[in-house]
Design goal:
The complex is a heterodimer of chains A (356) and B (622). Chain A is an alpha+beta fold and 356 residues long. In chain A, 39% of the residues lie in helices and 18% in strands. In chain A, a hairpin with a 2-residue loop joins strand 1 and strand 2. In chain A, helix 8 packs across helix 9. Chain A is elongated. Chain B has 622 residues and is mainly α. In chain B, 66% of the residues lie in helices and 1% in strands. In chain B, helix 3 packs antiparallel against helix 4 and helix 4 packs parallel to helix 18. The longest helix of chain B is centred in the first third of the chain and has 35 residues. The chains are: A alpha+beta (356), B mainly alpha (622). Chains A and B meet through helix 1, helix 2, helix 3, strand 7 and strand 9 of A and helix 3, helix 5, helix 9, helix 10 and helix 11 of B. Chain B: It is found in: Cell membrane. Chain B: GO terms for molecular function: cytochrome-c oxidase activity; heme binding; metal ion binding.
C-alpha cells in the first residue's frame, strides 16, 4: 500500500512540477528559452506555426464537438435514414483554399529563414574577421579548433557573445550532430563532407544562463550517444580575447606546482600523453588528435562532458571510464592505476588552468 | 477436394494454414503474426519507458537500450503495422470488389511466408549475440561501425520480409485492376479498396530503393564492399537518401489504409455515404504522389543546403492540403448523420483530434529552419507517434473490432472494446503529448538515459505512466479476443446492421469461394443501394456455374524457408566454414521449390454447381 501511496505522490509531484516549470524548460538547454539570433529566429517560426496550427485545431474541434452533441444516435432503435449527401463543391473549395493560404503564410518566412541561416559567406571572404571554429566529433567527445587563433580545445567550447560565430563541422568516425538547443538548431557532423553554419549568443541572456550552455549530440552514434554532452562557455569579446591570449601563451606543457602534481605529470607523460595533448597548438591534423585536448582541463565544468568536476569523480573516471561512458575508446588504453597514482594524476590534471 | 467443411484435428488445421492460398486464411495468418510482433514491439516500448522513467536509470545497459529502440521501430513498422494492415487488406479488399480471391493466390501465400521468415530471422538476433543497434534507420556510418551480427540480421531479415511486402503489393494491384465484379467501376470502389490500391502502388515504387540500400549494406558488411566506406570513396549520405526515398512513402503506405478503414467506419456508423467521395479519392491519390516528393525533409540537418531544404519544406507543407480535405470530409460525413458510438466508432472519433495533432506538428517539422531545433529530438518522437499510433494503430484496433465478425464469424465484446479504447487512448496522449515539450526543452531522441537537473525528470515519469495505461488497454483487448473466441457466438451477414459495402452481403465468415454468384454492382455502397431498394441481398451478375479454385500448396513455405536458411549462411560465412555451403543449400531449396512449381502443372479444381446448390440450403447465400 505504501508503495502505491508513493506512486500517487510521485505523479502528483510530476504534474505540479510540470505546471511550475511554465512549460519553457531550463534556460541553459531549452529551445524555448532562446539565447541568440538563430534560436530567436527559430523560436519565432515555432510561435507562428503554433498559432496557425492551434487555429486549425480549434476549427476542427468546434465541428467535432457539435457533431458529438447534435448527431449522436440517441436511441439505438432509431431506424431513420439520414439524407445521403454526395458532397459540396463550395465546401470543398473552401477547405482546400484556406489551408493553401495558411501554408503560404508559413512557407514564406520558412524559406527566408532557411536561406538566412545558411548564409556563411563571411567565412570565405579574404581577411574576414569572423570567428571560425572547426568542430570535429569523435566517439563520444568533441574537438574544437580555432584556426584563426591557432589553438585547439575540447569538450568545452568557448565563444564570444554578441557576434556571429561560424562553424565547420565534420565527424571523424561515425555521424554525430552538433546541437546547442538554447543557441539554435543542430547541424549534422557528416563523415563525408564539411557542413557549415553560424550561431550567435546574446550577452545578456548568456549571463542569465550563467554563461554556460549545454551542448548535445543529436544523432544516434552508439551506446554512449546519450552521454556525448559538451558545454559552451559564452563570454564577452574582451574576456574571450583574454582567454585566447592565455591559451596561446602556453607553448610548453604547464609545469606542475606541488610535489604530488609533479608525480602526476610524470604518470601523465608515461601513460596519457600518447593520446591527450596538454598544449593548445594545432600543428597536428584533426585526424591525429585521438583524444580530448586537456590544456585547460582545470578550468572546465565537467569531466568527460557529464561528470561533476572534482577530484573524486576524476579518479573514478580514470580508474575505469567504462561504467560512465559505455563503449568509449579510452577504456583499456593504459595500465591500471594505483590509488596513489590516481591521486597524483588528479592533482596534476585539476591544476591545468590557463586562467585564474 | 470437397466444398463441405471437414472436421480436422490440430495437425490438420496446422497443415491447412501452412499450405493455404485462400486470402481469408492468409489474412488470419497475417493477423496472428502481426499481432504477435505487435506485442513484442510493445514490450520493447515498455522497456524503453521503464528505462527512461527516472534519470540515470540502469534498468537496461546503454548497448541493450540501442538494440531495444532499433527493434522497437523496425518491429512496429515492418512486422506489426504493415502485416496487420495486410491482414485487413487480404480479408476485406477482395470481398469489397466482389472477387473470389486475389489475382495470384499462390503468390499471396508466398508473400506472407517471406514476411514471416524475415520477421523471425530478425527477432532471432535476440538469442544469437544481440539485436541490431543502429536505429531503425540504420544510418550507414554507425551501421557499418556496429560490431557483431546485429546489423546483419537487420539487412538480411528486412530483405526477405521486404520481398514479401513487395509481391504482396503487386498482387493487390493486379487484383484491383482485374478482378472487380461487374459494375464495380473505379469510382464505385469503397475507400478502403482505393487506399489499398494506392498504398500497393506506393509499395511497388518505395520498396525497391530500400532493397537497393539493404543490398549495398549487405555487401559492405558481409562481402567486403565499400559503398558506404568514406575512406574508400564511399558515401554515407547516399544511404540516407535511399532509406528515406523508401521511408517517407512507407509512412503513407501505413496511413492511407488507415484512412480507408476510418472512411468505412464513419460512413457505416453515421448511416451516411462518405461526404465528397470523389475528392476523397483524389486526395488519396495526391497524397500517394506527393509522398514521393518529400523524403529529404528527414534530412534537413544533413547539410543539403538551403535550396534543397526550402524546396522540400514547401513540398512537405503541400501534403497538409489533401490531408485537411480528408479530415473535413470525415467530419461532414458525420454531420447530419445518425452517429452510433460502437467500439470502431470510438476509435474513429478519437482518431480525429489525435491525428490532427500529429498532422499539425507535421507541418511544424516541415518548416525547415525551425526543424533544425525539432530534428532528432523527442518532439519528432512525439510527432510520429501521434501520426502512427494516433492514426495507424487506432485504425488497426478499429478494424480489428469492425471486421472481426467478418473474419471469424463472432463479435468482440463491445464493453471490453470500449474499456480497451479508453485505456489506450488516454495512455497514448499521456505518453506522447508531453514528449513534444521534452524535445523542445532539449532532450535528444534515442538517448538511453538523461542526467538530472535539465528539467526532463517529471515529464519522463508522466510519459512512462502513460505507457502503462496503453499496456493495460492491449491486455484487455487480448482478454477480449480470447473470451470472444471461447464463447464463439455466431453472427449473420451484416452484424453491425448498417453495412454498406459488398463484404457485408455474404456470410460471416464467408464461404471459401466468397461469392457463389458474382454480384452486380449498381453504384457506390453497393449493398446499401440494394437495401434502400428494399432487397435483402445483391443481385447476381451471372448464372450459377462451376467455380474454379486454386489448390493449396506447401511450396510458398519452402521458397521462403530456403531464403531463411541462406540468410544464416550469408551471415556466418566469414566466421565459419559451413557458411558458404549453407548459402548454397538455402538457395537450392528456394530455387528448387520454384523449379518444382514451374514444371508441375497445377490447374486447381472446380466446385460443381450441384455442390453450390447444397450450400444455399445451409444459408450460404451470395
Amino acid at each position: 500500500m505504501k508503495r502505491l501511496a508513493n506512486w500517487r505522490l510521485l505523479s502528483l509531484f510530476a504534474v505540479l512540477a510540470l505546471v511550475l516549470s511554465g512549460c519553457r524548460g531550463e534556460n541553459f538547454v531549452s529551445a524555448l528559452r532562446p539565447a541568440g539570433e538563430v534560436a530567436d529566429m527559430q523560436f519565432d517560426l515555432m510561435k507562428l506555426s503554433t498559432y496557425v496550427m492551434v487555429g486549425v485545431i480549434l476549427v476542427v474541434m468546434i465541428i467535432f464537438v457539435i457533431i458529438f452533441f447534435r448527431f449522436r444516435r440517441k436511441d439505438d432503435k432509431d431506424e431513420t435514414i439520414p439524407k445521403q449527401v454526395e458532397g459540396s463543391h463550395k465546401l470543398e473549395i473552401l477547405w482546400t483554399s484556406i489551408p493553401i493560404l495558411l501554408l503560404l503564410i508559413l512557407a514564406v518566412p520558412t524559406v527566408s529563414a532557411t536561406f538566412n541561416l545558411a548564409d556563411v559567406s563571411p567565412m570565405d571572404k579574404k581577411n574576414s574577421k569572423a570567428l571560425v571554429i572547426n568542430v570535429r566529433s569523435h566517439l563520444y567527445w568533441w574537438d574544437f579548433e580555432y584556426p584563426g587563433q591557432k589553438l585547439v580545445t575540447s569538450q568545452e567550447l568557448v565563444v564570444p557573445t554578441n557576434e556571429r560565430v561560424y562553424f565547420n563541422l565534420k565527424s571523424l568516425d561515425v555521424k554525430h550532430s552538433f546541437w546547442i538547443p538554447a543557441a539554435g538548431g543542430k547541424l549534422d557532423t557528416n563523415t563525408d563532407n564539411i557542413n557549415k553554419f553560424w550561431l550567435e549568443f546574446d550577452d545578456k541572456r548568456s549571463n542569465e544562463a550563467g554563461n554556460l550552455f549545454y551542448g548535445k549530440c543529436a544523432e544516434l552514434c552508439g551506446p554512449s550517444h546519450a552521454l556525448m554532452d559538451f558545454k559552451v562557455k559564452a563570454i564577452s569579446r574582451d574576456k574571450f580575447d583574454a582567454w585566447v591570449t592565455a591559451m596561446q601563451d602556453i607553448k610548453e606543457p604547464q609545469k606542475a606546482q606541488s610535489d604530488l602534481a609533479v608525480q602526476g605529470q610524470d604518470i601523465f607523460n608515461k601513460s596519457c600523453i600518447g593520446c591527450h595533448a596538454v598544449t593548445p597548438e594545432n600543428k597536428l591534423p584533426d585526424t591525429a588528435r585521438q583524444a580530448p585536448n586537456l590544456t585547460n582541463f582545470g578550468d572546465r565544468s565537467r569531466i568527460a562532458g557529464i561528470l561533476k568536476h572534482d577530484k573524486e569523480k576524476l579518479k573514478q573516471w580514470i580508474s575505469n571510464p567504462e561504467p560512465y561512458k559505455p563503449g568509449n575508446l579510452m577504456t583499456g588504453k593504459y595500465d591500471e592505476m594505483s590509488p596513489q597514482e590516481l591521486d597524483a594524476l588528479a592533482e596534476y590534471l585539476m591544476g591545468l588552468k590557463v586562467q585564474e | 477436394m470437397s466444398t463441405i467443411a471437414q472436421k480436422k484435428g490440430f495437425g490438420g488445421t496446422l497443415w491447412d494454414f501452412l499450405t493455404t492460398v485462400d486470402h481469408k486464411k492468409i489474412a488470419i495468418l497475417y493477423l496472428i503474426a502481426g499481432g504477435f510482433f505487435f506485442v513484442v514491439g510493445g514490450l520493447e516500448a515498455v522497456f524503453i519507458r521503464i528505462q527512461l522513467a527516472v534519470p540515470n536509470n540502469d534498468f537496461v545497459s546503454a548497448g541493450a537500450f540501442n538494440q531495444i529502440i532499433t527493434m522497437h521501430g523496425t518491429t512496429m513498422i515492418f512486422l506489426a503495422a504493415m502485416p496487420l494492415l495486410f491482414a485487413f487488406m487480404n480479408a476485406v479488399m477482395p470481398l469489397q470488389i466482389g472477387a473470389r480471391d486475389v489475382a495470384f493466390p499462390f503468390v499471396n501465400a508466398l508473400g506472407f511466408w517471406l514476411f514471416f521468415f524475415g520477421g523471425i530471422f530478425l527477432n532471432l538476433s535476440w538469442f544469437l549475440g544481440g539485436a541490431p543497434d543502429a536505429g531503425w534507420t540504420s544510418y550507414a556510418s554507425l551501421a557499418i561501425h556496429s560490431k557483431g551480427h546485429g546489423v546483419d540480421f537487420y539487412v538480411l531479415g528486412l530483405q526477405i520480409a521486404g520481398l514479401g511486402t513487395l509481391i504482396g503489393g503487386i498482387n493487390f494491384l493486379v487484383t484491383i485492376i482485374n478482378m472487380r465484379a461487374p459494375g464495380m467501376t473505379y469510382m464505385r470502389m469503397p475507400l478502403f479498396t482505393w487506399s489499398t490500391f494506392v498504398a500497393s502502388a506506393m509499395i511497388l515504387f518505395a520498396f525497391p530503393p530500400l532493397t537497393v540500400g539493404l543490398t549495398l549494406m549487405m555487401f559492405d558488411r558481409l562481402f567486403g564492399a565499400n559503398f558506404f566506406e568514406v575512406a574508400m570513396g564511399g558515401n554515407t549520405v547516399i544511404w540516407e537518401h535511399l532509406f528515406w526515398i523508401f521511408g517517407h512513402p512507407e509512412v503513407y503506405i501505413l496511413i492511407l489504409p488507415a484512412f480507408g478503414i476510418f472512411s468505412e467506419i464513419f460512413a457505416i456508423f453515421s448511416r451516411k455515404r462518405l461526404f465528397g467521395y470523389s475528392s476523397m479519392v483524389f486526395a488519396t491519390v495526391l497524397i500517394g504522389f506527393l509522398g514521393f516528393m518529400v523524403w529529404a525533409h528527414h534530412m534537413f540537418t544533413t547539410g543539403l543546403g538551403p535550396v534543397a531544404n526550402a524546396i522540400f519544406a514547401v513540398a512537405t507543407m503541400a501534403i497538409g492540403v489533401p490531408t485537411g480535405i480528408k479530415i473535413f470530409n470525415w467530419l461532414f460525413t458525420m454531420w447530419g448523420g445518425s452517429v452510433k458510438f460502437t467500439t470502431p466508432m470510438y476509435y474513429a472519433f478519437g482518431f480525429i483530434p489525435s491525428f490532427v495533432c500529429g498532422g499539425v506538428t507535421g507541418i511544424m517539422v516541415a518548416t525547415a529552419a525551425a526543424d533544425y531545433q525539432y530534428h532528432d529530438t523527442y518532439f519528432v518522437v512525439a510527432h510520429f507517434h501521434y501520426v502512427i499510433v494516433g492514426g495507424v494503430v487506432l485504425a488497426i484496433l478499429a478494424a480489428t473490432h469492425l471486421w472481426w465478425p467478418k473474419m471469424f464469424g463472432t463479435m468482440l465484446n463491445e464493453t471490453l472494446g470500449k474499456i480497451t479504447f479508453w485505456f489506450f487512448f488516454i495512455g497514448f496522449h499521456l505518453t506522447f503529448f508531453i514528449q513534444h515539450f521534452l524535445g523542445l526543452w532539449g532532450m535528444p531522441r534515442r538517448v538511453f538515459t538523461y542526467l538530472p537537473g535539465q528539467g526532463f525528470d517529471a515529464s519522463n515519469m508522466v510519459s512512462s505512466i502513460g505507457a502503462a495505461f496503453m499496456s493495460i488497454g492491449v491486455l484487455v483487448l487480448l482478454y477480449n479476443i480470447i473470451m470472444t473466441q471461447v464463447k464463439n457466438v455466431k453472427v449473420g451477414n451484416d452484424p453491425w446492421g448498417d453495412g454498406r459495402t459488398l463484404e457485408w452481403a455474404i456470410p460471416s465468415p464467408p464461404p471459401f469461394y466468397n461469392f457463389k454468384q458474382l454480384p452486380l454492382v449498381r453504384g457506390l455502397d453497393a449493398l446499401w443501394l440494394e437495401k434502400m431498394a428494399g432487397k435483402k441481398g445483391m443481385t447476381p451478375a451471372e448464372p450459377l456455374g462451376d467455380i474454379h479454385m486454386p489448390n493449396a500448396s506447401f511450396i510458398p513455405f519452402m521458397i521462403s524457408f530456403g531464403l531463411f536458411i541462406a540468410a544464416f549462411g550469408a551471415m556466418y560465412h566469414k566466421d565459419y566454414s559451413w557458411g558458404l555451403p549453407v548459402i548454397i543449400l538455402g538457395l537450392l531449396v528456394t530455387f528448387g521449390s520454384m523449379f518444382l512449381r514451374s514444371i508441375k502443372d497445377d490447374h486447381g479444381f472446380h466446385i460443381h454447381k450441384e455442390d453450390l446448390v447444397d450450400d444455399t440450403e445451409k444459408g450460404a447465400k451470395a
